[in-house]
Amino acid sequence: MRNPYETAAEITARLGRNGLEAAFGGGFGLEKESLRVMKADGRIARTDHPFGDDPHFSRDFAESQLEIITPVAGSTEELYGMISQMNAEALQKLAESGETLHTSSNPPAYVPSEVRIAHFTGENAHKEEYRQYLLEKYGLERMLLSGIHYNFSYAPEYPSFLGMETDALYLKAAVCTLRYAWLLVWLTAASPGPYRAETFGQCRESVRPVYSSVRCGKEGYWNSFLPVLDFSGAASYCDSIESYVRDGMLYSSSELYLPVRLKPRGINTLDGLRKGIDHIELRMLDLNPLEPAGIALEDLRFLRLFLIWCSFFPDHLPDEKEQKDAITNMKQASLFDERRIWIREGTILRPVREAALEVLSEMACTFEAIGRFDALSTIEYQKRKLLIPGSRYAEQVDRTCANSLPSARITA
After folding, report:
1. Interatomic CA distance for residues 241 and 28, integer angstroms
2. Can you tell me the distance from the alpha carbon of 162 to that of 345, in angstroms, rounded to the nearest whole number?
3. CA-CA-CA-CA torsion sign (357, 397, 34, 411)
4. Which one, 33, 165, 220, 359, has least CB within 10 Å?
5. Would 409 be classed as within a structural domain?
6. pTM (2 decimals)?
7. How far apart are CA 17 and CA 163, in angstroms?
8. Mean per-residue pLDDT for 220-243?
9. Strand 148-153 relative to strand 27-38: parallel, antiparallel, unpaired?
10. Contact 66/147 with Cβ under 8 angstroms?
11. Would you tell me how many other CB atoms lie within 10 Å of the CB of residue 103?
12. Closest CA to 363 of 313, 409, 397
């Protein structure tokens, strides 16, 4: 990795004051999935989706799996306000029928026959057919895992300050995000499990979860094979995804279960993406049961800093081994016991905490060197998760038993 101070000096000289200001602009959006559950018993709701055709309150896989989709915000703070307000509105409406939102990415105990695939009719009937395909291919328990997708678009003028085309900037950011997806999982994992049903009520010190993030773990939200993509250009990127669709390995680009996606404006299709990349989507975030809106403001601030930092990196095209190592690192970072987590960097294996602290320190050096001292407190917030024992979200959730029901099937 290049020396962050040298990189910062080059960045400052190339971008100038206006370019650095553009780096901190952009558009922000969230898609938050949560299962509707009954307040009385915590079971998954069996009612119809109560929000009609409101595009900001949709459904993911299940009829009971609410997806809150924010409008595009102009700042992190505005985005946090939006998701907080929309989440509160959803809770208020659900309370009228005795329902609420499950706060964990892991589903509560459930009866499989009571879970309904999201129902669509008319010109949208194909959406229900697609969900039936997913159910048969991946199984119900995997499809009920919920999470948050973070969408970010760079300011339109920013690529020109970098001397890049817009598509090239997003491809670079995707490569960087793939490489460090393990770090984002390690810092935001908040869904420890699985727990066996017979262990509930026992001391947590004697019953430890396997994962800090079930959905990012080996048995989580993944394709049955590892897609390897071509990041050399937008057309090549689309071609590499389309080859898997053509060979029958993916239903469509929507079935690409990697931690990062590049997306067009409007409907997510490869044809749309070939016309231009509009934003990047980070898909590895758990719901945080410790936060009323499911995500912390400081984590949103960090994600913005991370993607700005990615734009400063030198160009690099990851080969097949590097892409496979990146996914292996991410799955490793989802484990609860950090003594089992080693991050591979080329031929070197390093303990996850050591590797994470080094990346955060390099980020801090970069932002300090370009004069953005306001970024340092956000990075320090992340460092404290690593420096103070037991302070990562998954550890706090495990101690407080926020996942009060086992993530397992039950019988009627």
Report:
1. 25
2. 27
3. positive
4. 165
5. no
6. 0.93
7. 15
8. 96
9. antiparallel
10. no
11. 22
12. 313
For residues 114 and 46, is the Cβ–Cβ distance under 8 A? yes
Give every CB contact of residue 233 below 8 A, 6+ residues apart in sequence.
Answer: 167, 168, 171
Q: Domain for residue 410, yes or no?
A: no
Q: Specify the amino acid at residue 191.
A: S
Q: What is the largest CA-CA distance in the chain?
A: 66
Pairing of the two strands 148-153 and 260-263: unpaired
Residue 213 in domain:
yes
Q: Does the pLDDT value for residue 268 go beyond 70?
A: yes
Helix (H/G/I), strand (E/B), else coil: 81: helix
How many Å apart are CA 207 and CA 181, to the nearest integer?
A: 28
Q: How far is CA 94 from the centre of its chain?
A: 25
- Identify the three-state secondary structure at position 141: helix
**54 C-beta neighbours (distance < 10 Å), count:** 10
Closest CA to 184 of 279, 311, 326, 79: 326
CATH of the domain at 342: 3.30.590.20
Cα radius of gyration rounded to whole Å, the chain: 21
Helical H segments across 61-179, by residue range: 76-95, 125-138, 140-143, 158-162, 166-179
Tokens 């895992």 belong to which residue?
Answer: 145
* Full residue range of the structural domain in which residue 260 is found: 4-400
Place 350 in a pLDDT band, splitting at 50, 70 and 90: very high
Neighbours of 206 (CB within 10 A): 7
Which helix H or strand E contains 246, and what residues bound it? helix 234-246
pLDDT value, residue 168: 97
* Start-end of H helices in 312-400: 320-333, 352-369, 375-387, 393-400
| 408 inside domain | no
The pLDDT of 215-222, averaged and rounded, is: 94
Helix, strand, or coil (residue 282): strand
Q: For the chain, what's the residue count?
A: 412
pLDDT surpasses 90 at 201: no
CA–chain centroid gap for 188, Å, is: 9
Provide the domain count of the chain.
1
